[in-house]
Design goal:
InterPro entries: HNH_nuc, NA-targeting_endonuclease. This is HNH endonuclease. One of its GO terms (molecular function) is endonuclease activity. The chain has 114 residues and is mainly alpha-helical. The chain has a single domain, classed as DNA Binding (I), subunit A (Orthogonal Bundle), CATH 1.10.30. 54% of the residues lie in helices and 7% in strands. The longest helix has 35 residues. The protein is elongated. The N and C termini lie far apart (46 Å). The structure holds zinc ion. Zinc ion (ZN) binds next to helix 2.
Length: 114
C-alpha cells in the first residue's frame, strides 16, 4: 500500500474536487458526506488515485467496509451510473493534464537555443 501513498496536500486536493463534483453528497446514499471512500478497497488492490475515490458519508464508508462500490450498491444502477460518470470526468482531467504537459514541452522546445 505504501507504493501509492499520497500526502496531506494531495488528499486535500482530492477532497476539494470530490466535494465539488458530488455537491457534498455521498455517492452511495445521497446524504451529506465528508469522507473519502475507495471504490475498490485498498485490501483488494485499489489505489489512492482520484479515479478510485468517491465522496461518502461516514455510515456508508463504514458500512461498505471491504466491499467494492458495485457490491455495496447492488442493484442501485442510478448510483453506479453516477460513479461511472465521475470516473469519466476524472479521465478527462488526466487527458487535460497530459495535454498541458505536451504543450509546455512543445513551447520549451521551440524556445531552446539552436
Ligand atoms: Zn451514504
Amino acid at each position: 500500500m505504501s507504493r501509492n501513498r499520497i500526502n496531506a496536500h494531495q488528499r486535500r486536493a482530492q477532497m476539494a474536487r470530490l466535494k465539488k463534483w458530488w455537491a457534498g453528497e455521498c455517492a452511495y446514499c445521497g446524504l451529506p458526506g465528508d469522507t473519502l471512500d475507495h471504490i475498490i478497497p485498498c485490501a483488494y488492490g485499489g489505489d489512492n488515485s482520484l479515479m478510485n475515490k468517491v465522496l461518502a458519508c461516514r455510515a456508508c464508508n463504514e458500512g461498505k467496509d471491504r466491499m467494492t462500490a458495485e457490491e455495496y450498491l447492488g442493484n442501485s444502477t442510478y448510483r453506479l451510473r453516477r460513479i461511472r460518470a465521475w470516473q469519466v470526468y476524472v479521465t478527462g482531467l488526466y487527458a487535460e493534464a497530459e495535454h498541458q504537459v505536451a504543450a509546455k514541452r512543445r513551447s520549451a522546445e521551440s524556445e531552446a537555443p539552436l
